[in-house]
Amino acid sequence: MGPTQGKELSPQMRERVLKLFARFDVDGSKSIEKSETIKYWKSNFAKLNTEELFKSVDTDNSGTISEEEWLNFWTQVLRSGHTEEEIADELESIESGSSWVKFENLENKKG
């Protein structure tokens, strides 16, 4: 096993990731629906951002993103070689309304 393969998010980063999840999950259902992300991004390429987000994170293609899928996605970003600092920067960017960034080669990149 490579050095990043078994990495987990730190408790602080896990809390930060879930905080952003809660900002999307406005109805508190513990899942993110496309209508919630479209409202979140308003007119800032909302539909495109939503499609990219769901393509990346909704691994069971259910049309919603569970907390587990959300945490798994960010854990995969960490395991692909990104640092928690980079993840924190990205979360901050999304929180300020910036577009969803597609992380390349998450499945293919091994640590």
TrEMBL record:
One of its GO terms (molecular function) is calcium ion binding. CDD domains: EFh. Coiled coil: none annotated. Transmembrane segments: none annotated. PROSITE patterns: EF_HAND_1, EF_HAND_2. It comes from the Eukaryota. Residues 45-80 form the EF-hand domain. It comes from Paramecium primaurelia. SMART domains: EFh. InterPro entries: EF_Hand_1_Ca_BS, EF_hand_dom. It holds the Pfam family EF-hand_7. This is EF-hand domain-containing protein.
